[in-house]
Protein 1
Amino acid sequence: RKEVEQDPGPFNVPEGATVAFNCTYSNSASQSFFWYRQDCRKEPKLLMSVYSSGNEDGRFTAQLNRASQYISLLIRDSKLSDSATYLCVVRGVGGYSTLTFGKGTMLLVSP
Amino acid sequence: NAGVTQTPKFQVLKTGQSMTLQCAQDMNHNSMYWYRQDPGMGLRLIYYSASEGTTDKGEVPNGYNVSRLNKREFSLRLESAAPSQTSVYFCASSETQGNSNQPQHFGDGTRLSIL
C-alpha cells in the first residue's frame, strides 16, 4: 500500500457544484495532515491543515478519520478559480519526521 | 514579502555538467528542504536540513549534494548532471519541528532540463 494515495481525477464539475476528495494514508501513527493546492506549473501552496475534530475555512471543509486512515476535502459552491491539483500531505512520527505528498487530485471547474 | 526565493527559474544543461540551485528564505525558519517533482510521481524529498549546520538524506538523494550555508540559505548541487535529473525542483522551509502542525512554504521552482 502506498504511503499516501489519492484519486488522480480529473474531477470535472460545473460552477456552483459541491465536490469531495478523499485521501488514504498507510501509517496509522501519522501525526499531522494538510491539504495543499498546486496550480499548473506553480509551487504547492498550503490550503489548510486538517485537525482531528475537522475544520472549515469558508467554502472548504477538511475531515480526518483516524480509524479508517483517510482525510477528506469538501469544496462547496465551486468557482472557476478552484481549478487546480489538490495534494494530500501527511507527516510521520518520531524524531524529525518529514512530509509525504500524495500525487494529487486534479479538479476542473467549468462555466 | 519574498518568502522562499529560488534561482535560477529555468536552466538547460548538457549531460555531465554541474550546477548549483540556490534557495533563500526570509521567514527565519529553521528547517529547509529540496524536492523534485516529476509527472505522475508527485513531490519527492531529495535532502533536508532540520536546522542550521545539519543536513539529511530524503527519499531520492543519489546524484545530489546540499549545503546549508547559513540559516537563510540552502543550496542543491548536481555534480554531474544526468538526463534522469530533468525535473522541476522546489525548495521549501518551515518552522522547527517543535510544533508538528507547522506546514512548509515553497519557492516557485526551478525547471531544469538535462540534454
Protein 2
Amino acid sequence: SQKIEQNSEALNIQEGKTATLTCNYTNYSPAYLQWYRQDPGRGPVFLLLIRENEKEKRKERLKVTFDTTLKQSLFHITASQPADSATYLCALVLLYNFNKFYFGSGTKLNVKP
Amino acid sequence: DTAVSQTPKYLVTQMGNDKSIKCEQNLGHDTMYWYKQDSKKFLKIMFSYNNKELIINETVPNRFSPKSPDKAHLNLHINSLELGDSAVYFCASSQWGDTQYFGPGTRLTVL
C-alpha cells in the first residue's frame, strides 16, 4: 500500500529563516500532491497543489517542489514568521483513484521570534 | 458562512454506547469524506461518498456506518463504542478529487 513519510520531529527555526519540510512516498507515483496546514483543534486547510509533470509551484512565500525520481516533495516557507507555526501535512492522490487521498502524519513547525 | 460544519465538536461517552456525528457542506461539492485522526496526528480515510454513492470503504469495523441522505450531508453512526475509537473525526468535501475542505473535527472520547 502507499506510504507517506514526513519528519515526525518538530522543526524549530528562527523568524526570518526559510523552513523546509520533506514528504517522501513509496510505491505508486501520484497524479498530484497537496500540502495542507493544520492548527491545533482545527481541520487541515489547503495550501498548494503540484502535479506529477510540474517541478515547482509558488504562492507568495510558499514554494513546493516535486521530484518523481526521488519520490519526494519539499515544502518551503521563506521569511518565516511566528504565525507560520503549525503542523504541515502532505497528501497525495494516485493516478487511478482521484478520490482517495493518502496523508502523511505531518511535521510540526515552530517559528521562534 | 461555514463551508463544512460538523456536530458535535466534542463527544464524551461510555464504552458500548451508540453515537452519531453529522456533517454538512454548503460548497456544492459532489464528494464527501470521513477521516480519523489518531493521537499521532495520522489522518486516515475511512469512507467517501460521491453523489450519495459509497465509493471508498476502507478497512473499518462494521460498527461504523456512514449515511448520505443527500449530496450536502454525510453522517457517521458508530455502534458499540470501544476505547480505541477515541480520536478526532474529520468530515471533508471536494469536487471529484480536487482540493479537500475539512470541517472543524469532532473529538470523540470513549471512557
Protein 3
Amino acid sequence: QVQLVESGGGLVKPGGSLRLSCAASGFTFSDYYMSWIRQAPGKGLEWVSYISSSGSPIYYADSVKGRFTISRDNAKNSLYLQMNSLTAEDTAVYFCARDEGSSSWYFWGQGTLVTVSS
Amino acid sequence: QSALTQPASVSGSPGQSITISCTATSSDVGSYNLVSWYQQRPGKAPKLIIYEGSKRPSGVSNRFSGSNSGNTASLTISGLQAEDEADYYCCSFGGTKTYVFGTGTKVTVL
C-alpha cells in the first residue's frame, strides 16, 4: 500500500537550516508529482512547494521562495525539502503528499514537526 | 498570493445538512471545477473528500458533495453524523502554478 514517511524535523534556531525527507513506497514514485504542505500549530494548511515527476518544473509559495528548495531522488524513492534562513513563522508540521493533479492530494504522510525557536 | 475564504465555523444537529462555502478573493484563482476539499481530524493528516469540484474518491461517503456557483465553491454534508466533526479545507489553484488553501472551517455536531 502507498506509504509516505517524513523525517528530519526538530528544533532549530532562527536563521538556521533543516532538511526534511519523505520516503515513499507502494507506488512508482517516479510517475508522480509530489508536494510539501505545512500547518502551523493551531492554524490552517499552507501549500509550500511541488516538484514534477522528473524534477522540473518546480514551484514555491511566495512565503518560502528563495529560502526553501524542493528536490527528489527517484532512484531512492525520496522527496526532500531543504529549508534555510528559518524564522519562527516556519514553525509547523510539514507533510509530504502525492499530487494527483487538480489541487488533489490523496496520500499524505504523517507529518514531521519543525520548531524554529531560540 | 490569492486567498480562499471559508466561514470559521459551521454547526448542525445529527441528521441535518450543512454547507461550507469557499469564496475566492481574487479573480486569478483557478477554475472552480478544480476545487478540492479536505477533512482533517485533530492530530491527523488531511483526508481528500472531494476533487475536481464534485468528484468523490473511492471510499468517501456519498453524504459529501461538492458544487460551485460563480466565484464560490461549496461542500455539503448531508445526514450529519458525529464522526463528521472535524476541520474542513478547500483548495484550488492560486495562479502562477501555485496552490492555495481556504482558511478552514470547524464543523461541530451539536
Protein 4
Amino acid sequence: GENVEQHPSTLSVQEGDSAVIKCTYSDSASNYFPWYKQELGKGPQLIIDIRSNVGEKKDQRIAVTLNKTAKHFSLHITETQPEDSAVYFCAASSNDYKLSFGAGTTVTVRA
Amino acid sequence: NAGVTQTPKFRVLKTGQSMTLLCAQDMNHEYMYWYRQDPGMGLRLIHYSVGEGTTAKGEVPDGYNVSRLKKQNFLLGLESAAPSQTSVYFCASTQTVLSYEQYFGPGTRLTVT
C-alpha cells in the first residue's frame, strides 16, 4: 500500500515568516495529493489539493508543489499569521477517494 | 446543514466492553469513512463505505466492525474493547461527484482502561 512520510513533525515560525512542510510518497500510481488542516479539538479540513498533472497550485497565502519524479510534494505558507497555528496533514491517493495520510506537522506561529 | 456529526464525543470503556460510535451526515454523500488518530501516526483508515449497504476494510480493520444500513449513517462497532483501541475516532464523508474533499466530523475520544 501507499506510504506517506511527512517532515518536520513540529515547526515553529515567527509571524510573517514562511512555513514549509514536505511529504514523500511511495506509490507511483498516486495522482491526488490533498492537504488538511486540523485546529485544536476539531476534525481536519481540506485547505488545498493538487493532481499529478499539475506542478504547482496557489490559493492566496498557500501553495503546493509536486515533483512526480522524486515522489514528493510540499506545502508552503507565506506571511504566516497566528490563525495558521494548527496540525497539517498531507495525503496521497491513487483513486481519489481512499487517502493515505502523513503523520502530521504541528505548526506554531509565534507572535 | 449540520455536516458530519459524531456521537458520543467522549467515552470511557473497560477492557472487554462493547460500544457503537455513530456517524451521521446530511449532505447526501455517497462515501463514508472511519479513521483513528493516534499521536505521531496521523489518520489511519479503519473501514469505509462506497454506498448504502456496502462496507470495505481499510488499513487497520482488526477489532472493529461497521454497518451502513442508511446512506446518511455509518456505524463503527467495537465488540470487545482493548486498551490498544484508545484513540480519537473521526468519521468523514465525500460526495465523489464534483469533488473528493473529505468532510470530517468533530471526533470521538475513546479511552479503554
